[in-house]
C-alpha cells in the first residue's frame, strides 16, 4: 500500500474529532486547521489530515474512509488497543498518545478503589441508606504493613507505588520485566522475579499494564488461585487483562475478598452481567482518568502534538515511529 501522504499546501487542513474538546485545545487546533466534529463514523470527512479520538475502533477500513491525506490518529490517553497499529503503520499513519495525561488521576483512582475496598466504604454506604445505623459485618482492613503487588511499573504503576509505599506505609512488590533496576531502588519497591513470584505475596493486587496479546487474560484462574486467601484485586488498566469468568468464580467462592474495577471486557457491561450482582465488587465506568486536570492535560497534549505535525515538527509521543514516511523523517525534534 502506498504511503503517499503529505501535508496540504495552500488548502487549509481538516481535523476530525468525536470528542468534545476543551475550549483551549479546540482554539489551538482552529488556529491551524478546520475542525470537523461528529459523534459517529458517518461524520468522518474523507480528507482529514488528523483525527483525535478515543472512542472508536480504528481498523484499516476506517482509516481508508478518512482519506489518503490522513497523517495521524491522536489518542487522548495512554492505551491504543482500539487502534490497529499494523494497519496504521502500513499506511504511513502516525499513532500519537498522551502518556503523561492520565497518570495522576488514574493512580489516585486505583488507590481510592483500594481504600474503599479495605474500609468497606461502598458496602457501608449502601447499608446505611437501606438499614440505617448498623456496623455489623462491616469490619475493615488496615492497609499499613500489608503487601501491595503491582503488575506494570510504568507511569501509573510508579505513582501508585509512591502513594501506597510512602504515604500508606504498605510494603510494595512489583513485577515488570521491562523496568530497570534503578526504578525499583528509587521507589523502594521489591522486584518480583516473575508473576508467579508476585502473586502469593499480594494481599492487594493492582494492574497497570497495557493490553497486548501477551497480557490478554494475564490474570486467569491459575493466577487468581496463587493469591493469598481474601486478597483484593484492583484493575484500572484494561478489562481484558483479567479473565472475567475466572474473576467472578474467585469472588463467588470467597477466594477474593473483593475487587475494584474501572475497566471491563466488554465495555459497557451488559445490564445483566454477573459483576453487577456482586456486593463485594466496586465498579466505576472507566472514569479513572476523567478528572478536570487529567482531561485538560490529555486534550491539550493531543492538540499540541497534532499542531506540531502540521508545522512540520515531530510529535514527542509517537507509538509507531516506524510509520514515519521518509519525507517526514527530517522533522524537527522537540527541543
| Global Rg | 22 Å
Strand order in the sheet with the most strands? 8-7-6-9-10-11-12
Mean pLDDT: 91
SS field, number of helical segments: 11
The structure class reads alpha/beta
Protein traits:
globular; seven-stranded parallel beta sheet; 11 helices; 335 residues; disordered N terminus
Would you kindly provide a written description of the structure presented here, covering whatever features stand out?
The structure is a single chain. By secondary structure, the chain is of the alpha/beta class. It has 11 helices and 12 strands. It has helices spanning 23-30, 60-66, 85-90, 103-118, 121-131, 155-167, 181-187, 195-198, 221-226, 244-253, 292-310, and strands at residues 14-17, 34-37, 48-52, 72-75, 94-97, 147-151, 171-175, 190-191, 204-207, 231-235, 256-261, 281-283. The strands form 2 sheets. It has a 7-stranded parallel β-sheet. A 5-stranded parallel β-sheet has the order 2-1-3-4-5. Helix 1 (23-30) packs parallel to helix 11 and helix 4 packs across helix 6. The model is unreliable at 1-10 (pLDDT under 50).
